[in-house]
Design a protein that fits this description.
By secondary structure, this protein is of the alpha/beta class. The chain is built from 10 helices and 11 strands.
Amino acid sequence: MSSEDNLLPLIVEPARLAEQLDAPQLLIIDVPLKAESYDEGHVPGAVFLDHRRLMAGSGDVPNDVPDEAALSELFSSLGLTRDTHVVAYDDEGGGWAGRLLWTLELIGHTRYSYLNGGIRAWRADGLETSREPSLPHPSDYQAEIRHPEALITRDELLERLDDRTLAVWDARSPEEYRGEKGQNRRLGHIPGAVNLEWTRAMDPERGLRIRDYAELVTELEALGLTPDMEVATHCQSHHRSGFTWLVGKALGFEHMRGYAGSWKEWGNRDDTPVETP
């Protein structure tokens, strides 16, 4: 589906969304890090989503993608239909909103946008908020993994560690990347991965909106990440890297992929190579 078919652009500014709040095909989803953020005031009409529902929640890799049955239940409960245009946002600059949009990409639902800066930018712009919960109208949505290329697995990463057409963007902190910090069996980073912490792509002076695109592209190119490359991004649980996946899409990177297992999987195995400075 081309972007022209969509109600809103991939990255939508608060003022633009405010003009479209009454559009019948719009589904605004607030997926905050802290649930109380929704109660303190949300975009009028937004429904609440517990971010934990975006992960499998059990097994060796609890942060992995839920199965298709769980995804069908999730998106049916939110009232998603094939014609729905989703606008996602959160309270922390785009991590969980990005994970939600990445999940929509996986199931082939490409009518989606990110509210630039989330509720922080919305409030900073003085736009109206609501404390009244908005209840979704359940649907019968059958989710299938239609775009598996949005995902990269541990096995594929292992096979392609020496592939120069694939780059790995580690969105964790520099301390985690260097192996100085972490709760995993093994600390460090995927061999060859480059590090740009997710918050470095946000502008704290502008309500956590995505930073100037030209500056970001220059920084990423200096790290060896260019828009023509395949870029796999990860963090500890594919939460922070939900945002970096989204940033890459916004910057025109054509082949952004998310590693759902992230360091929670890679750093807790014995058969995955680990690099430290």
